[in-house]
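Table S4 entry, Transcription factor IIIC subunit 5 HTH domain-containing protein.
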Amino acid sequence: VSTIYTFKSMCDFQFLPLTKKNPTDTHYEDLVPRLVPVDLPSALSWWHKPDIGDMRTPLFLPPYQFSRYNTPSAKILSRELDFSLEKMKRKSGGHGQSLRMERKALSVTVHADEEFPKAPTEEAIRDANLRCKNEEPHRLLQELFEERPMWTRIAILRRTGLEDFLLKSLLQKYAFYILNGPWGRLWCRFGYDPRIDPKVDV
């Protein structure tokens, strides 16, 4: 070998489904033709071919360590929704650097002396709708904040009966979090400001 190339980060890999017919064999058999139809006739008869004897296809799963995710996610295979200039610049950065966008919270947090937001961001609404397509949890939170504009997280969980992980992704659509002051640690409905409401006593 006259030339060796080394890379500081992995940009791509391929894991082929291979197996040995016998443990003593020195060569491997490629399972791709048996896992994926290679032409139209075989694709049309795929479910009717026998799966016995030599025709039986071994079960194949890639090694667990090849997966970065240990929980299912609906967004892994979703089409790209973020076309912001910042993300497109990162994508065009080339190899040798991390192209993964940092995770950012879409919920809004404010201090008691700051301006309270009037409405959620479009990104927060889109993300909440994508994560929960069932309309019932959305209706429960909508009615809850119409009944009363401010709630603690525990009270919301108790009243709605929603799972904590689901509530985490939906609250960003209906309320913002107050960090300190008389209403600290409360979730407040967008568009509501207790500081100017004459009915509120501190």
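The two ends are 78 Å apart (CA to CA).
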